[in-house]
Amino acid sequence: MLAEAEVTVVCGGMGGVMEAVCKGASNAGGRTVGILPGVNPSDANPWVDIPICTGLGHARNVIVVRSGLAVVAIGGAYGTLSEIGHALSDEIPVIGLNTWSFNREGNEDDSLHICKTPAQAVKTALLLANKRLHNCEN
Q1: Domain locations in the chain?
Q2: What is the pLDDT of residues 75-87, one digit of tens each?
Q3: Domain 1-67 = CATH 3.40.50.450
Q4: Which of 7, 26, 111, 136 could form a disulfide with 47 if both were Cys (CB 3.0 to 4.6 A apart)?
Q5: Closest by Cα among 123, 100, 127, 126 to 111
């Protein structure tokens, strides 16, 4: 759905959700960028068009997050959690799909834009990214 909206997908470039996202975008005719933790471009999943080798391990998550106008967090372990934290710290909107939730001082933190479907997540991401782009242009 992101590819159909002519959005370049940027992710960590490895397996799991990252591979599924790249495969979907590629099959829809989109472009994919993989920000890899290591130094070998062949470590990227087969659907990464542009592998970027960082040699930074999990520190690459900052690059992944700062490469976009919005972040879509799907599922995920602690690497995803760090990406969510970096994005929120940088005031980059985060759209969550079956991912982490947060409590702050006993109250639910609504910093994430929680969506129930991929279509809703894409629609929300595009809306928030366009809003952020517009604010950056002013």
Answers
A1: 1-67, 69-138
A2: 989 999 999 999 9
A3: yes
A4: 26
A5: 100
